[in-house]
Amino acid sequence: xxxxxxxxxxxxxxxxxxxxxxxxxxxxxxxxxxxxxxxxxxxxxxxxxxxxxxxxxxxxxxxxxxxxxxxxxxxxxxxxxxxxxxxxxxxxxxxxxxxxxxxxxxxxxxxxxxxxxxxxxxxxxxxxxxxxxxxxxxxxxxxxxxxxxxxxxxxxxxxxxxxxxxxxxxxxxxxxxxxxx
Length: 181
Ligand SMILES: [Fe+2]
Ligand SMILES: [Fe+2]
Prior knowledge:
By secondary structure, the chain is mainly alpha-helical. About 85% of the residues lie in helices and about 0% in strands. Helix 2 packs antiparallel against helix 3 (about 80-100). It is elongated and about 55 Å long. The chain binds fe (ii) ion (2 copies). One fe (ii) ion binds next to helix 1, helix 2 and helix 4.
């Protein structure tokens, strides 16, 4: 696997750990346990800044445009599907946010459950279909350029500081959820 792909796949791993924690929190809410709102506030922050910020900035701003230059379409096929999925995630994030503001946990959980299952499917498609297809379409020079533009993109979003902030956030969310009876 190329280094540029590995970077995105590693981000998917952290995103999925966050989903595992929140899936557990969501089922606790549904079975009547008291889950602190900080879990959902952290999830919204993580989703905005890490999943939609740090990660999607590289996909939408760098990788997808390159793959379109190398022959994929923006209008149909895998890139169009992935972009449509990203919009769905933004809509669901908005619903989670509204539910939290309205203190409507049923709305938060319904939006979250849809978000979790559709994001897992999306990640599966990227890891197993789009990224391998992308690797087969780009040159060694493209790969070097991708990595340096990813570096610049990450730096503009806070670099290592942002990455470790959200790794730590996931660890503390896990501690909170594991401590709920
Ligand atoms: Fe994506
Ligand atoms: Fe992704």
